[in-house]
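Exam review. A common question shows you a sequence with its structure tokens and asks you to describe the fold in words. Practice with the pair below. Do the first one on your own.
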Amino acid sequence: MSLHEPRSDGAQDTPPPSTTGFFTPGNTIRVLALADWLDMAAGEHPAIGVDLPMIQRGFVWKPKQIIDLWDSLLSGMPIGALMVSELRHDDARVALAQGSQAATAAQRLGLVDGQQRTLAMLTGWCAFAAGAGQRRLWVDLADEPAAGHRVRLRVSTRHQPFGYDRHDPNRKLSLDQRRRAREAYAAVTAQDLLAQARPHPAGAKYSAPVDWGQWVQAWRQLQDADAWKHALLQELQSVQTLAIADGTAVLRAPWDDIPPAERTHIHQRLDQLALGLQRIFATQIPLVRVDPALFQADSEHGTEPPLARLFQRIGSNATPLSDADYIYSILKHMMPTVHGMVERLHAHSRVAGLLTATDLVMSALRLAAVRWEGVSDHDNPSKDDFHRMVIRPKDGAPQQRQADMLALLGSAGPQVLQGYFDIVQKNLRYRGEGDAGLPALMLPYLGRPLVQVLLRLAQSGFLQDPVNEATRAQALRLVLWWMRWVWDKPKASRTAFDVIQNSIDRSDLDRQIAHAVVEAGAGLAMQPPAAIAALGLHLSDTATLLGHQRFATPEDDSEKNRRTREFYRHWWQPWSHQHPMLLWLQRSYLNGLDAEPLAGMDEDTPYDFDHILPSAHWSPDWRIVGKSGAVEDFREARSVLGNSIGNIRVWDASHNRSDGDASPQEKLQKSEDPNQWMGWSAMDPSHAPHWIACSPAEGGKNTDWDRPRALSFQRAVELRAYALYQRLYDEAGFAPWERT
């Protein structure tokens, strides 16, 4: 059977696009074969290329969106129209795909709307290119399809080379699953894992994933569906996936273990897949012409130019553009060199670890505005603010303000953004054992408001290169306090900018900023450990299991004590199991992990916030049965203890030798060096008896609880939470703040 037999509806495939006159006069829609469009977008068409106009932002889709789109394609469902505009040869643009021939093609189109869909389709259109791609699409015919899907599709990424959770494609694999995968692929861990590893089969009875892009191209080359299916079946028989043999993770071909009945299902899915590919190659997609006049960034009638209205219209059909996205897009359109400047800046890990590209532009705008007469400080300017600041300023000098932006984004001179980032990094970065600096993996948690304050400290000369140790210590204290006890970060950032601008004596600028932020109602004042211990918050009555009431203030207590209790509640933070402060408390351990931090990629971190006593022990229920048979319900206390910073550590899959649902006692017993294990986990060795006592009795179930075990768990959590706070207070040198 030919792969290109006539369509059943009698229509003819669209001929390849011509090299000139993509839209004929009077026509605003052109229908194109989807395959032709994807070839053009991939840079595989010699005559027509696809670029992104400067207004476009980057790829933001999550794995599930990629999977859902490809399932729609295989099912023959419509995916909507794309919007394009003709680009002149002198128009600024950004290449859509790496290696694209768009720059030399005779005809070039700008993709105005449809970038996310197009890039998602390209993920599975061509065979994965090692070293270039950031995402990879797989089809797994041996695994049962997800509900409502034709086949099982999976995505892996540069940061998650073993894929994502089978049931929730946007959720990372567990630490134990990633550990098993790393064990199985130990021989290639120093190489490109995304190019060599296959998705972890966790949850699949049988699994044999193959590179979907490779087999899409094989379909085109073989020109025969039966030959294609035969070749794919041959491939499935040799695919090696992760398996557990005698407790060890190994790579093994699963085909011989698949029973005949399951192989029948694989053949049926293969037939469905071939039918889906026929649909894709018969699919046409409409391209809607966007008048280039709509790219006008200015307006004679106020602050709503045609480009802004265009964004609002197209944004309603996809992920809406934020004000920051809009401002970056307008700046790129007005000053095309901005894109190259931002890309060069963002190529450095010391920048990308702190801010996304969009946040970088917003920071440049804010720092440039510091010197503009009569301009108020805006930590997050709206579209109208931006037009008043840059497009139509009251002083009537937009060119000068745009020049100031370009100068700040430039790569030469002392007063440029790159220089400020260098100064901030040199002051913040961790120097090794005993230092109070921040590990690189902590930088993405700082957030734009705080990073802008740090850049402003560099711009003002407070932070310096060579590093002044006194001001460095102040900056580190400010960062650590801000991350945990500032809740209105935009307001705090504006307050800090004001203090930096107007302070005369800078000998304690960190304390001045903290005091002003607290006075503004945007954060909590730092409390010494002695104040926490004086209220008994560090240890509770050993006979009582406490939940949130441990932080409750008696009606007749003082306001000062109420603030102390609230302060310590924020340290425990039992409403979430994610505690970024642990990245600093475990900075020596984190410094040994081989990973590059990226701001805005929190779902792709190489580590997890791991429960020391796993949640499987206490999260299903916590009803404690006494000797008399009476049942006590402590479900409210379990999450307060279980999710406290005292029961969480930062842990990397490569060091996860005995985790999963193992108890602290089992982890200690299986560790090669118990003291190192406790040190890496930021645990005091003297607390070990409490962690052992809160583990289940030998031969007992994890979820079996009696009062002594529960009280031991509470004591272990309380001791570690307070010890961690003491370490923070002492090692960061917060004692001078007691005057605040």
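Now try the second one, then compare your answer with the model answer below.
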Amino acid sequence: MSRGSPIAEETQLPPLLLSPIDADRRLRGPYTAGSAIASALVPEAGPELVARYDIELRTVAPDLGELVPARRQSIAARLPRAERILVHAPRRTLRIANGLAEFVRAHLHATGPRTLVVRNLHEADPTDRELLRVLRRRLGPDLLVVVTGEQAPSGELEEDLRPEEHDKRADELEAQGTIGARLGAIPYHRERGTDPRRAVEALRFAVEWCLDSGCHHAVAELGLRALPLVDPETEPDLWWRFLHSTATALGSLRREDEAEALFDRARRESVSPVTHAAAAYSTGMLKVRHHDPAGRDLDAALAWVNQAIAISTLLPDPGERAFKLGFDLNGRALIEVRRGRPAKALELVQQAVDLADSGLRPDEHPIHRLVLLANRAQLAIMLGRPEDALEDLNRVIAADPGYPDYYIDRGNLLYRLGRLEEAAADYETAMEAGPPFPEPYYNRAEIRFSTGDHAGALADLDHALELDPEFVDALANRAGLLAALGEYGRARADAEAGLSLEEGNPYLLCALGQVEMAEGRHAEARAAFDRALERAPSLTAAWAARGALAFETGDPAGAVDDFTRALEPGTDPALLFNRALALRAAGRPREAEADLARALELDPADEDARRELASLRGERPAQ
């Protein structure tokens, strides 16, 4: 169907963006729909626009080749597969979807509104479902009308994939010669027939491509299909590669029990020391990183990682031993941090650094070395050695300037050191170095707020939440800022949206309490502040807000107590002023006078404190 098709005209919709897309993942795997969109628009787009979104376009449509030159790359792109040790976080696909949505939006601003027709969305990979949600949310029907047909209304976008319905459709597609154009023409019927070798090779290519791209659902689905086709005795390396990739993806998808079952299978099937060490390490990481806090077990994690260390120590090859043992020591360092022992963790990371320096060639495993330096920097920060941390982070960024996350780490450190302009510069570099993600905007909002640029802070938080509406910390900060600006309706909406995602979040409860107090619902405000303090007893903002509520409702003694708790982390002139008013109302003028005098020492320009102090002393305020 061409772009001028009657499908759009007859229903009074804008012209088609491209011919209707079949989103069935068995056609082209992850981003079946995304690749069709990119392939249609890239030839028409200007080179500057294509270059701006090179990572996103090359991810969803790698077969575009030279039409999308690589502009932004981490050094990992140039390394052998065995040295690409970083696995994309689950939210990577959201970053890709946001970038592609911005690319489409820029194109439509130049060409006018369009209609996108997508079929078989119920068979699409989660990457395409996520992409269509983002397109709907960020472009809106005024710019792009997304039509998905009767089988896939928007309410079903989260429906689980159904593997039992997969093979029949896959066989039909393969018979037509259309299946798996990107992922190596995966031959489904040959998995169950006389030519499984072709299936294995196709699945190997597909699993590696999907893992490199952060498409964890596809890795899990394809890897579980691949494992029965490989004999662990005759092809142990390939079998382990499939198992490890699949378990890694399952862990990323919060399916830790299934991942652990695969590692148990590896222990049953394999006698390879390397496999047993890697399975032990990976099991330990599942125990320490489990998405459900109730599922975490630091003692079990320590036992598993210690087993990995014991095995890796005995590996005969010096280079392999240096790498794998260093990897395991770094894993144990994470456990020690969670156990509250950062000094011990630093010792372990330093051992891993020393192993890399002594046991690896200078050009070998650069990503492993950078991860160790970045982790050493975080531990140095915990131990009060920021200058050491900054030196390590400078080295990391100099070695891999195309990796955005390191700029976030250094920006956060610079912010703590009071070097706000440099911190903002790092956040802005992170914004440009990779696909869009909310953290740099969220962090820059902190800087803007601290310097009094409330409008700029609000704009940054708005953009962070446009990129990820479920970013709870950004909802909490924006709710608090909106409450301070008197926009109580919007503040309440953010607080309630955040609490629906993370019930009991103390920052959201504090913001909700501020809204309730401002709107005169004092009992509800007190309940919100109490709940916040139950969950975060050291939350200064909640103590201060509850103190203000107590003062406002005629309880100056309670206000004094709450303001005193709010002042425990450090002296603050505004809190001293508020406590002075409460002390005066409670009949404690000498203490009130001391608070006002101290507030004026800290902020000599505070005329309100000056007037109150003069009044207490029975003096006429200065003219």
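Model answer, second protein: Confidence is low (pLDDT under 50) at residues 1-10, 150-166, 173-181, 187-193. Residues 304 and 540 are 39 Å apart (CA to CA). Full marks require stating both points clearly.
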